[in-house]
Design brief:
single chain, elongated, Type_1_exporter, alpha/beta, Rossmann fold, 3 domains, nucleotide-binding, ABC-type transporter activity, four-stranded antiparallel β-sheet, ABC transporter transmembrane region fold
């Protein structure tokens, strides 16, 4: 993989700096000025030593050049201080903050379908590690790199005024060293990308291992998963070792070439003295300038991997930013009600060739209770995701109150919809904060009222810290039924006119199911409700039941109407009744 040209790197750095681009450019300007005066300072050694070593010494001229040297030193200090203000003061922190805000806003507008494909550890690596990899070197590279390039140029130019032969000899080192420099950059670019990829995989494995430890213990798979984690860690170590070794030989050859080249330049100077074409004063000054000329060349080789390290981080950040957000309408449309309608909707997930939904059309009246049933993978959850605009269909329209969800303001759309998932996600915060997420401006009394309506106030008050109890990561300190009721309290507090229930009682015990069902009855009220159901007994009273099969609406009707029709619904009902009868018979036989 080829390394990115430096000009492209500078352009990407300026783009990443956002509102602080003027500060970054100021850093680059004063770094350049600092490098120029450094080069001029070393150029002063030629006339200074010429004046001192003259016979007799010309001290008036010498002191003049000493003053010039001192002035260059003072200017250099001032310019460096101004330039480093970007690196060590507020701007670099602002760039980090702003870049994370940009990523956060982009994540908010990304299709959730795209986010589902990314492991949480990979996202964490981008938002935390890769942002630091981009921003932290930015100020240092801006100041150091320009100094590395500009100072030798000024030093060579000054040498050319004194003796063009020595200047040409110094410049001749550069074309010989450049192939080794680019060899190193290509190796470093490939290496850091491989390391970044291995690091992201390791981060994902670490997060997954930590989050799934309870399940791993319950299924006796801790060792197996630990081996996967260990394999990821060992792979990261091996990649780091291999790529570091790839950088050794270019470095050795580059350093050797620079040192040999400088020895040749000094040998030429001695030869010119012996031939009577160069003065001792010029050679003495040349020794000082050559040392200053060689230092940036060595630093250039050492600093080049930092560019590639930053490039690897930029690549991951830009890859995330490259995911196209959902388009936003210039003039958002307002719904006239809360009827839900799908018209000729066809949808497939990106990266697949098969339609998940095929010409789906239906209308769910406002204030109705509708159920989606069907086998796993038939497209039920996809329908609700399109309603919430987690993605846009390739064909057809999804409407709320006559308004296409694609033309609605995204925040306005989500204010109209509450969701109670089967797998509840609670944030590692207090119960109060988790419920209040439904309506952030709600006071404590409103939160408590929602908790009472969701039948969770009683168990909350029995906890030592009550509503201030922290629920732990993903709500792990609470039972499944308790988490579900808190989720329902959050939806009640939100008070949205459309409610989506994704089989909220499927994984609960009988006691928890009864409590959650009571909470759901309170939540439903006079709203447009869509239920994804697997237990058909829970939706016999629905106003409409849609049977989804192979991405199509195979049947639609009430429970009674569908039982009279041959088809998937009646077969599912009979199968569940048989299972129920078998369970009762098994209990009686056991007794």
């Amino acid at each position: 993989m080829r390394s990115t040209p430096l000009s492209a790197t500078w352009a990407r750095m300026q783009k990443a700096s956002g509102d602080q681009v003027s500060q970054l450019r100021r850093c680059m300007l004063f770094s350049t000025l600092s490098a120029v005066v450094q080069g001029l300072a070393f150029a002063c050694f030629y006339p200074l030593l010429d004046a001192v070593l003259a016979a007799p010494a010309d001290w008036d001229r010498a002191w003049l050049w000493v003053a010039a040297l001192a002035a260059c030193t003072v200017l250099d200090i001032v310019f460096i201080w101004i330039a480093r203000g970007f690196d060590y003061a507020g701007p670099i922190a602002d760039v980090t903050h702003n870049l994370r805000l940009v990523l956060g806003r982009h994540l908010r507008n990304m299709p959730l379908e795209a986010l589902d494909k990314k492991r949480s550890g990979e996202l964490a690596a981008v938002l935390a590690g890769n942002v630091d990899e981009v921003v932290t070197p930015m100020g240092m590279l801006s100041s150091a790199f320009l100094g590395i390039v500009v100072t030798p140029v000024v030093a060579v130019a000054a040498t050319a005024f004194v003796d063009w032969r020595l200047a040409l000899a110094m410049v001749s080192i550069v074309p010989l060293a450049l192939p080794l420099y680019y060899w190193r950059r290509r190796a470093a670019g490939r290496g850091y990308r491989a390391i970044a990829k291995a690091h992201a995989r390791t981060s994902a494995e670490l997060v997954e291992y930590a989050q799934g430890l309870a399940v791993l213990r319950a299924t006796n798979q801790v060792g197996k998963k630990a081996r996967r984690l260990q394999a990821a860690l060992e792979n990261l170590r091996d990649v780091q070792e291999r790529e570091q070794w790839c950088l050794v030989w270019p470095g050795v050859l580059y350093s050797s070439l620079v040192q040999v080249g400088l020895l040749v330049v000094m040998a030429l100077g001695v030869w010119f003295i012996l031939s009577g074409t160069l003065s001792v004063a010029v050679l003495a000054a040349l020794l000082v300038v050559v040392v200053r000329f060689s230092e940036p060349l060595a630093l250039l080789f050492g600093i080049s991997p930092v560019f590639d390290y930053m490039e690897a981080g930029l690549e991951q950040v830009e890859k995330l930013l490259a995911v196209r957000p959902l388009p936003v309408a210039d003039e958002p449309e307002q719904p006239s009600g809360f009827e839900v309608g799908f018209k000729d909707v066809r949808f497939r997930y990106s990266g697949t060739d098969e339609d998940v939904l095929k010409n789906v059309s239906f209308t769910l009246p406002e204030h109705s209770l509708s159920a989606l049933v069907g086998p796993s993978g038939s497209g039920k959850t996809t329908i609700t995701r399109l309603l919430m605009r987690h993605a846009d269909p390739q064909q057809g329209t999804v409407r709320i109150g006559g308004a296409d969800v694609r033309t609605m303001d995204q925040l306005e759309l989500m204010r109209h919809v509450s969701v109670v998932f089967q797998d509840v996600y609670l944030f590692d915060d207090t119960i109060l904060a988790n419920i209040r997420m439904g309506r952030p401006d709600a006071d404590d009394a409103a939160v408590e009222a929602a908790a009472r309506a969701a039948h969770c106030h009683e168990f909350i008050t029995r906890l030592p810290d009550g509503y201030q109890t922290r629920v732990g990561d993903i709500g792990g300190c609470l039972s499944g039924g308790e988490r579900q009721r808190i989720s329902i309290a959050r939806a009640i507090l939100k008070d949205a006119p459309i409610v989506i229930l994704d089989e909220p009682t499927a994984a609960l015990d009988t006691e928890s199911e009864v409590a959650v069902q009571k909470a759901i009855d309170t939540l439903v009220g006079n709203r447009t409700v869509i239920v994804i159901a697997h237990r058909l007994s829970t939706i016999v009273g629905a106003d409409a039941i849609l049977v989804i099969e192979d991405g199509e609406v195979a049947q639609k009707g009430t429970h009674a109407e569908l039982l009279e029709q041959p088809g998937r619904y009646r077969a599912m009902w009979q199968a569940q009744q048989c299972t129920k009868d078998w369970h009762l018979a098994a209990v009686k036989d056991a007794q």
